[in-house]
């Protein structure tokens, strides 16, 4: 059904660029939520292309699309593309909206995760991309993001817990096991308190 909707979109709304961008964005986010990141990439790339011609590069709507696209690239292991888009979005968001804005925080998080994802997949293969393989830099970024997310979103917010969980993973793959365990336990305690022990997110943290 979604694929047919995407096909009809081009035919029915070809001249209405703002509406096309809105619909491509909605389709991309839906595909992403359904666990279909490759299809999401196709829709979000179309959204980005339209917005790049109709909006300012640092418009919130443009940056939201860039963040979604970078995240989708990361999910399909296009780590170089994820890093490029996330870093560009992060810099634009930082300059216009500041370091604590959710767009800035989200883009910086995605950039860090692109590096961690790349290292997880490629570190044993070689040769490796020196920019993507900056694992220490990724962990430093996540460590810096955590207090900002706590301040901006709150300790128990999903975005804060995601950063905390991913920082714990970063510690784990760099053999900082005590720090990793402490953070995983913190995430678990918060989810246990706020979601309950039977919630899927709580169980996944175990």
Write the layout of secondary structure elements.
Blueprint: H1 2-12, H2 17-33, H3 37-54, H4 60-75, H5 79-97, H6 102-122, H7 135-153, H8 158-173, H9 177-195, H10 200-205
Total count of helical runs of at least 4 residues: 10
Major sheet, described briefly? none
How much of the sequence lies in strands comes to under 5%
Class inferred from helices and paired strands: mainly alpha
Describe it for me?
The chain has 206 residues and is mainly alpha-helical. Helices cover 79% and strands 0% of the residues. It contains 10 helices and no strands. α4 runs parallel beside α6, α5 runs antiparallel to α6 (102-122) and α8 (158-173) packs antiparallel against α9 (177-195). The longest helix is centred in the middle third of the chain and has 21 residues, at 102-122. The model has no long low-confidence stretch (mean pLDDT 91).
Task: Give a brief description.
This protein is about 80% helix and about 0% strand.
Task: Provide keyphrases for this structure.
single chain, 206 residues, mainly alpha, 10 helices, globular
């Amino acid at each position: 059904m979604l694929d047919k909707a995407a096909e009809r979109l081009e035919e029915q709304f070809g001249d209405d660029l703002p509406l096309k961008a809105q619909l491509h964005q909605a389709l991309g986010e839906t595909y992403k939520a359904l666990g279909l990141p490759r299809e999401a990439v196709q829709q979000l790339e179309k959204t980005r292309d339209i917005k790049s011609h109709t909006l300012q590069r640092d418009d919130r709507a443009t940056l939201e699309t860039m963040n979604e696209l970078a995240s989708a690239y990361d999910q399909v292991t296009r780590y170089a593309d994820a890093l490029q888009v996330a870093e560009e979005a992060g810099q634009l968001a930082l300059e216009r909206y500041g370091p604590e804005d959710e767009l800035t925080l989200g883009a910086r998080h995605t950039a860090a995760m692109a590096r961690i994802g790349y290292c997880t997949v490629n570190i044993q293969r070689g040769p490796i991309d020196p920019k993507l393989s900056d694992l220490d830099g990724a962990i430093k970024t996540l460590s810096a993001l955590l207090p900002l997310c706590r301040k901006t979103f709150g300790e128990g917010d999903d975005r804060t817990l995601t950063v905390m969980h991913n920082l714990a993973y970063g510690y784990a793959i760099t053999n900082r096991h005590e720090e990793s365990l402490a953070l995983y336990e913190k995430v678990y305690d918060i989810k246990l308190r706020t979601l309950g022990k039977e919630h899927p997110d709580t169980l996944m943290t175990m």
